[in-house]
Design brief:
2 domains, eight-stranded antiparallel β-sheet, single chain, 12% helix
Length: 565
């Protein structure tokens, strides 16, 4: 009997050493296998209760990444994601003498990966990342000047911004000024093409490298010698007449500094609509803070030298931003949440979508009276591993794109679990950091799914070993002293990056009820959601905890342990 215990303890130590290797680098995503070897360990399954919770409008100002485009998800329906951004002069109080605009263009780089470069031509090939929808699909893009003024909340502290929400699209559209600025029909990627609407009514997220050509000696357009290359991005020509009037003919003092300038030129509104002939559309994740409007113009060298030279003025898409989302949020076979037994399906959807609420060990009870936890303490269990495995309802998901990650967090205290904090594993792709904590889309054999190969997922596994250890070790009454380690209510969301722990505010907070009673006893109000759930446009349908779910797919807390014998 003692030998059997020591064998189990040895295996447990090996697993702990593996789990503690938190500085290793995961370089080959898609080839990694999430460990499932629990040789020699006891296993215990605890029932959980998991049910759905819709989110409604969410805070979308100053997000680190933004959804942008129109996309019809085959399961969850249509999403139209528009955008507002303040602008700022790259050089304040610029000197103009007798300027004439040559061109104005806006460039915002996409997330892309360099594939190859032709050593003869210098041209490079790229693949785009974080874009949903077929390559042949388009969106309708209209860029306008906006008169919407982003304001501070005087009651919330110094320079504290008001919250802006995903459902304020009509409010921002009411502040649109003038005509569409991207009214140039030339092609941004091939200057020999004219009468083309790929920059507006048929805008495309192109993976082509962007090339700028030198002009001929006589000043005419030349398309042979490349002056500059840029990685793929939103590349649109803007109305030179507008910028002549707005910038070169600005009233005195309006360009003095950016505090004055932002009141004069409040921002740009990027309105997105479904393009004619593109039923599915395309939607990209974009970082607009890297966007720049470049005004190319000729001007006198100085106030005393009339020699004309080429100059550039940058207007940056910096300052405050708001992502404006209009979603169908269709959930197949959705029923009112069952807070007692849990739901058959869990619907997770990013943006202003849906999440799941999860209770362990019968819900939020005093840990000193929970029979399951008391049994573990009394028998001195050593918790080697604990996890929740969420199985995908493959029939319900059909061909819909799958989020590569979901995340579990402390809903009560709006913060990550200790298992995420203590996992230091890293990857060359930051989306796959915290590998031990998990939540990564994997196949039936626990191999990480390779999205580039169009592999489909089977499950997500999230480890909460340290959290369960804390409940067992520190939640009981030892030597007359009650140790504080609370069985909190958990939230489950899709995520773009688990390493970012900030939250966004819900316009309408929701109240969760006790899964043990189904009434207000043990209820709590929630008004925050992880910000990395807001930026993710995708969704997934998982099997839940209701007894109607087949046992092999039903959500349970799985605990591997050893104990003295």
């Amino acid at each position: 009997m003692k030998f059997n215990f020591f064998l189990k303890a040895f295996v447990a130590c090996v697993i702990l050493v593996f789990s503690a290797s938190c500085d290793r680098d995961i370089n080959e995503i898609g080839s990694g296998v999430i460990g499932d070897d629990h040789y020699g360990l006891n296993v215990y399954n605890s029932d959980v209760v998991a049910y759905n919770q819709s989110l409604g409008a969410v805070q979308t100002n100053d997000l680190p990444v933004n959804q942008f485009g129109f996309y019809k998800n085959p399961v969850f329906g249509k999403t139209t994601a528009s955008f507002f951004s303040e602008v700022a002069l790259g050089t304040a109080n610029p000197d103009f003498y007798s300027p004439t605009i040559d061109s104005v263009y806006l460039y915002v780089p996409y997330y892309s990966t360099l594939q190859s470069t032709d050593t003869d031509t210098g041209d490079s090939a790229y693949e785009l990342d974080s874009i949903q929808g077929p390559e042949n699909q388009r969106i309708k893009l209209s860029i306008y000047e906006s008169d919407y003024a982003i304001t501070n909340n005087p009651t919330a502290g110094l320079n504290q911004l008001n919250n802006y929400y995903s459902n304020q699209g009509s409010e921002f559209e009411a502040k649109i000024l003038g005509s569409r600025l991207n009214n140039n029909n030339g092609n941004a990627y091939d200057h020999t093409v004219t009468n083309d609407n790929s920059q507006n009514d048929q805008f495309e997220f192109s993976k082509k490298q962007i090339k700028f050509y030198k002009k001929n000696a006589d000043g005419t357009a030349g398309y042979t010698e490349v002056r500059e290359r840029k990685a793929p991005g939103m590349m649109v020509h803007l109305d030179p007449v507008f910028f002549t009037n707005k910038i070169f003919n600005a009233p005195a003092g309006k360009l003095f500094n950016n505090n004055v300038f932002k009141n004069y030129f409040k921002g740009l509104h990027f309105k997105v609509e479904q393009a004619s002939g593109s039923a599915e559309g395309r939607l990209a994740m974009m970082n607009f803070s890297r966007g720049v409007i470049t005004i190319v113009y000729k001007d006198n060298t100085s106030s005393t030298v009339a020699t004309r030279i080429r100059k550039e003025l940058a207007i940056n898409l910096s300052g405050h931003t708001v992502n404006l989302l209009d979603n169908d949020n269709n959930f197949p076979n959705y029923v009112a949440p069952n807070t007692i037994s849990g739901d058959h399906n869990l619907f997770l959807k990013g943006g202003n979508g849906s999440m799941a609420v999860i209770d362990l060990f019968g819900g939020q009870k005093n840990n000193t009276t929970n029979l399951e936890l008391q049994k573990m303490r009394n028998e001195k269990w050593i918790i080697n591993e604990a996890n929740l495995t969420f199985y995908i309802d493959k029939a319900a998901m059909a061909s819909a794109p799958e989020p590569n990650r979901i995340s579990l967090y402390d809903l009560t205290n709006k913060r990550p679990l200790i298992d995420l904090y203590t996992d230091g594993t890293t990857s060359s792709n930051t989306k796959y950091n915290k590998l031990i904590y998990g939540g990564i889309l994997s196949d039936e054999n626990s191999k990480i799914v390779n999205e580039s190969k169009n592999e489909r997922g089977f499950k997500y596994k999230i480890r909460l070993t340290n959290y369960i250890r804390s409940l067992v070790k520190n939640g009981g009454n030892t030597d007359g002293v009650t140790k504080d380690s609370t069985n909190v209510r958990l939230g489950l969301v899709v995520t773009e990056n688990v390493s970012v722990a900030t939250n966004a505010t819900l316009l309408s907070p929701f109240t969760t009820v006790s899964s043990a009673t189904g009434n207000s006893t043990g209820s709590q109000q929630t008004k925050y959601v992880p910000v990395m759930s807001v930026v993710n446009p995708l969704g997934t349908i998982l099997y839940g905890s209701n007894p109607s779910v087949p046992v092999d797919k039903r959500l349970k807390l799985e605990i591997f342990y050893t104990k003295p014998e």
